[in-house]
Amino acid sequence: MEKRNYRLIVRFMILVLLVVSLISASSLKLGASAPYVTRTVNRYGDVIETQGAYDPIQNIKNFTKDGVSDTFNNPKDLFIDKEDYFYVCDTGNKRIVILDKCWNYITEFGSSELIQPNGIFVRDEFIYVADFGDALDNYSGKIAIYRFDKNNKEVTFVKSYSRPIGSLMEVDDFLYRPMKIAVDTNYTMYIVSHGSSNGVLLVNSENRFLNFFAPNSSTGTFMDLVKKYLYGENENVILTKKIAPAPENVMLDDSGYIYTVTQTVVQNGLGDTLKKVNIGGLNFYSNEMIVSSDFVDSWASAHKTIYALTAGGTISEYDIEGNLLFSFAGKRKNDDQLGLFQSASAIAVNSNDDLYVVDDTAGSIQVFRKTEFTHNVHRALELYISGKYEESKGLWEEVLRYNSMFDLAHKGIGMAYYLERDYTKAMEKFEIANAKEEYSEAFWEARNIWIMNNITKAAIILVVLIVAIGVVIKTNKKYHYLAFVTTPIKTVCEKPKVRSVLIMFKFIRHPLDAVYYVRYDKRIKLYNAFIVLALIIGIYLLSLVATGFLFTDIVLEKTILVKELTKVILPIVLFIVSNYLISSLMSGEGSFKSIAINTMGSLMPIVVMMPFIILISNVLTLNEGFLYYFPLVIMFMWTGVLLFVVIKETHNFSAKKTFVNFLLTALMMFVLIIAIILLYLVFAQLIGYFVDLFKEVIFRG
């Protein structure tokens, strides 16, 4: 009987394990449903992988019309109004299709008036359609306006506007090719016309041209600037004309901000191809935010975030300040995968925060739904933007459960601690999020509290210390009770080698005397220069680890020691070698030894001042940054003057000849750098050749 019970228990346990395994397997399968990786940006500006933000849930390829399945043909735009009605710009079929929030067919219109509808915007009951027109007819582009009666489900044509009225339009015979449109509450139209490098067309409700809006800046090379400076307005000189890139799309939000996207080259993923502009044309986003070069559309959400879509199907979400929150989806390579696209053209968001993205090549619309992680981020953002930092704290902590390095969450929690007057914890969170301005404010408060609590003790200690030092100095002159300390120090300082090293400090106040000693005192050896170089390296490494958080951008985790040492050693060595070579050609009197020692001697202000500058950087706020940067400027100016003076005296040059010597030295340094790079490339190829040869011998032997 006991044996039978034992078998039943074993079978039950096996069954439980089997069920758990199946549940785990299904969970893994669900978690891996998205065929893409979601990315965000960390505190150092690096794009990293993060928790999934949106899941693809549906690919809509057709809809039912009068009981028959219908499809889109090359749809180019999509608009979703506040009641979740869908307005699809079905370009290939020359029509606009209206569907309700359940994707049920309502009506369609435009086939008799529209030629090539590319953009759509809905304001109140009016539907504005940007019609590109006939490619062979330069005057066929227009804006068509319709009225949609939601009660009767009927659309009536109101009017259409051809090229806007205005002298600028007529004088320049402006080629009017409307691609996209947005309309504000005053029914002023913001129209993107194909190839309009002057920006978005601002047109009033009577089709009168008002102005160009939010133009992009033109780019040029350094040689273009040189040519312009040299030739000015000379009409005989042909200069390459740099034309600003034309905007690709335009979008409005409920706050009155206008968003434009532009397709142009970006450097290292940074640029201004996405802009958030007010009515005055001021861009609120950074000119070096993380963007793409092929944005095609954008959409402002109810959470004050902005979605931007690339032609390849990558979706990026930004916060109110233009910081990248998430980047996901992308281009489809082979199979028909949910969440990837052949060619994306438009994006829109409904009231439930579901994303709808148009794939014009596939003629479909894909739907994305936010995850619980993103839901918490949005709720926390709403509270954060409203200044309700304490209320958002719990949500940010929940976000950190999904991603412990989500910097915006650390910043939000830091603001909550700041309002709770827990400035120490606030500083910790702001440092993690690399929020320098907020850290500075918290540090100001924490420092004030420390000063108020310790000002009396600090004053007493300072007075006692000053009095004690004064008494010791006076009494020691009479009784010499510190002789056991001062005598050995003097003895050490009088030793020839130590004395020759201490002469390096003479460069600070008496550089001419120091140069004289280096030239005629045989006891001053070349190792003095190496000692100063070692001090410079040590101070530089100290600055990397000890400079205050507010005054450094160094990331210790990403710092390569060899690279940092090269930054210090290479310029100094190149200057000494280059100056020796140039000065030899210019009949300079300085030897290599004197150039090396005197050059290092001119750097002594760095040895003396930099430790104190590093120290004060830890007790200053950003508002007091002058007290940090001013000593730095003085230090480098002092060093530059000393370098000029010692090189002049070393070679016995005039001031003019010394200036020429510096210019030629800089040129020689540049030549040596090029030579070093070429040698490196040659040796790299040579080593690669021998490595490949060795592998060939090993694997074929």
Keywords:
single chain; about 700 residues; alpha+beta; Methylamine Dehydrogenase, Chain H; Serine Threonine Protein Phosphatase 5, Tetratricopeptide repeat; about 45% helix; about 20% strand; elongated
Question: What's the helix and strand layout?
Answer:
Elements: H1 2-31, E1 39-41, E2 47-49, E3 54-60, E4 62-65, E5 68-71, E6 77-80, E7 86-90, E8 95-99, E9 105-109, E10 117-123, E11 126-131, E12 142-149, E13 154-161, H2 167-171, E14 178-183, E15 189-193, E16 200-203, E17 209-213, H3 222-231, E18 247-252, E19 258-262, E20 270-271, E21 274-277, E22 289-290, E23 295-300, E24 306-310, E25 314-318, E26 324-331, E27 340-341, E28 344-349, E29 355-359, E30 364-370, H4 372-385, H5 389-402, H6 407-419, H7 423-432, H8 436-479, H9 483-493, H10 496-502, H11 506-509, H12 511-520, H13 527-546, H14 561-585, H15 592-601, H16 604-616, H17 626-651, H18 655-700
Parallel strand pairs: 26-27
Antiparallel strand pairs: 1-2, 3-30, 4-5, 6-7, 7-8, 8-9, 10-11, 11-12, 12-13, 14-15, 15-16, 16-17, 18-19, 19-21, 20-22, 23-24, 24-25, 25-26, 28-29, 29-30
Structure report:
- By secondary structure, this protein is of the alpha+beta class.
- A hairpin with a 3-residue loop joins strand 24 (306-310) and strand 25 (314-318).
- It is elongated and about 110 Å long.
- The protein has three domains: 60-213 and 301-370, YVTN repeat-like/Quinoprotein amine dehydrogenase (Methylamine Dehydrogenase, Chain H, 7 Propeller), CATH 2.130.10.10; 371-481, Tetratricopeptide repeat domain (Serine Threonine Protein Phosphatase 5, Tetratricopeptide repeat, Alpha Horseshoe), CATH 1.25.40.10; 495-687, no CATH class.
- The model is unreliable at 16-32 (pLDDT under 50).
- The strands form nine sheets. It has a five-stranded mixed β-sheet, with no helix packed on it.
